[in-house]
Amino acid sequence: MTAIFDPERLSRARTMSARLTDTQLAQELRGDPASLEPEAVLALQEEAKRRSKARLPLILSTTGAIGRPIRRVIAIVGAEHAVRMDQQKDTPAPDRHIVGRRTNPMQEAFRQAREEVLRELNARGAALHADAVVGIAFSMSECSSQGKKLMLLLATGTAVELDNPTPSD
Question: Rounded to whole angstroms, what are the CA distances from 98 to 9, 89, 108, 159?
Answer without folding.
Answer: 65, 18, 21, 42
